[in-house]
């Protein structure tokens, strides 16, 4: 089994940098009320090797450090780290193997998004910000048990049907989000909880007015290609 010592200095330097990024981004999950206690995880894939960095299993957020982050290969095998990696490691690995443009994966149990997952419902696209960020509804994926790559398979299968969405609500479990890096995936997780909460509130007032797909496509194109700094 390969260890980090088998990789060159460029890879080891990126591992050090990504460990710092991933450790820091877990603080954002707490800041945006996306997790409690030890639930949830962030990972980021390296650019220089087929490796990724992920949170250790069952460690409280205040104890996380760059050094406690675990380095795994794309089969989920530990390459470096003293802790056991997250119980979702096999699913993160599956996503990276099967979605080569994805370099960040996040899982949370945020309250409102998980409530939609518990009822097996897509979050309907009733907000322009949803058109911007998700290109349509936030889809629900199938029920899968934790501890293998089964959840990752469900994430990939669902997002192939909703290619503009960076988020999927795994039924009876919670949201998984993807991105060009871990920060983008964390942003998607925060946005998923925001729209889940707002759409839940809208349901209490009446029927949600869904935006036509043609307009969603225009919103998404503007947001992805025009909005912000380039």
- CATH architecture descriptor: 3-Layer(aba) Sandwich
| Major sheet: arrangement of strands | 4-3-2-1-5-8-7-6
Instruction: Give the count of helical stretches.
Output: 7
**DSSP helix fraction:** 40-55%
Number of strands: 8
GO biological process, one term: pentose catabolic process
Family: Belongs to the aldolase class II family. AraD/FucA subfamily.
GO cellular component, one term: cytosol
Enzyme class: isomerase
Describe this structure in words.
The chain has 230 residues and is of the alpha+beta class. The chain has one domain (4-226): 3-Layer(aba) Sandwich (L-fuculose-1-phosphate Aldolase). 42% of the residues lie in helices and 14% in strands. It contains 7 helices and 8 strands, in the order H-E-E-E-E-H-E-H-H-E-H-E-E-H-H. It has helices at residues 9-31, 89-98, 111-118, 128-134, 150-161, 182-205, 213-225, and strands at 41-45, 51-54, 70-73, 78-80, 104-107, 140-141, 167-170, 174-179. Strands 4-3-2-1-5-8-7-6 form an 8-stranded mixed sheet. Helix 4 (128-134) crosses helix 7 (213-225). The longest helix has 24 residues, at 182-205. 44% of the residues are buried. The model has no long low-confidence stretch (mean pLDDT 97).
Helices and strands, with pairings:
Blueprint: H1 9-31, E1 41-45, E2 51-54, E3 70-73, E4 78-80, H2 89-98, E5 104-107, H3 111-118, H4 128-134, E6 140-141, H5 150-161, E7 167-170, E8 174-179, H6 182-205, H7 213-225
Parallel strand pairs: 6-7
Antiparallel strand pairs: 1-2, 1-5, 2-3, 3-4, 5-8, 7-8
List keywords for this structure.
230 residues, alpha+beta, L-fuculose-1-phosphate Aldolase, eight-stranded mixed beta sheet, 8 strands, 14% strand, globular
């Amino acid at each position: 089994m390969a260890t980090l010592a088998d990789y060159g200095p460029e890879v080891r330097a990126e591992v050090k940098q990504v460990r710092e990024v991933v450790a820091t981004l877990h603080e954002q999950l707490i800041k945006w009320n996306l997790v409690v206690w030890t639930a949830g995880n962030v990972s980021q894939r390296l650019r220089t090797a087929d490796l990724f960095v992920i949170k250790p299993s069952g460690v409280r957020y205040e104890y996380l450090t760059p050094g406690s982050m675990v380095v795994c290969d794309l089969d989920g095998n530990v390459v470096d780290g003293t802790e056991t990696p997250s119980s979702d490691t096999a699913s993160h690995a599956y996503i990276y193997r099967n979605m080569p443009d994805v370099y960040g994966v996040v899982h949370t149990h945020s309250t409102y998004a998980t409530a939609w997952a518990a009822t097996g419902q897509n979050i309907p696209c009733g907000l322009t910000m949803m058109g911007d960020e998700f290109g349509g509804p936030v889809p629900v994926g199938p029920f899968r048990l934790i501890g293998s790559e089964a959840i990752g398979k469900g994430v990939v299968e669902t997002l192939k049907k909703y290619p503009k969405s960076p988020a999927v609500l795994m039924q009876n479990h919670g949201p998984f989000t993807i991105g060009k890096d871990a920060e983008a995936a964390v942003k998607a997780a925060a946005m998923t909880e925001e729209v889940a909460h707002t759409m839940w509130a809208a349901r209490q007032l009446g029927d949600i007015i869904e935006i036509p797909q043609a307009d969603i496509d225009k919103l998404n194109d503007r947001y992805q290609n025009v909005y912000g700094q380039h």
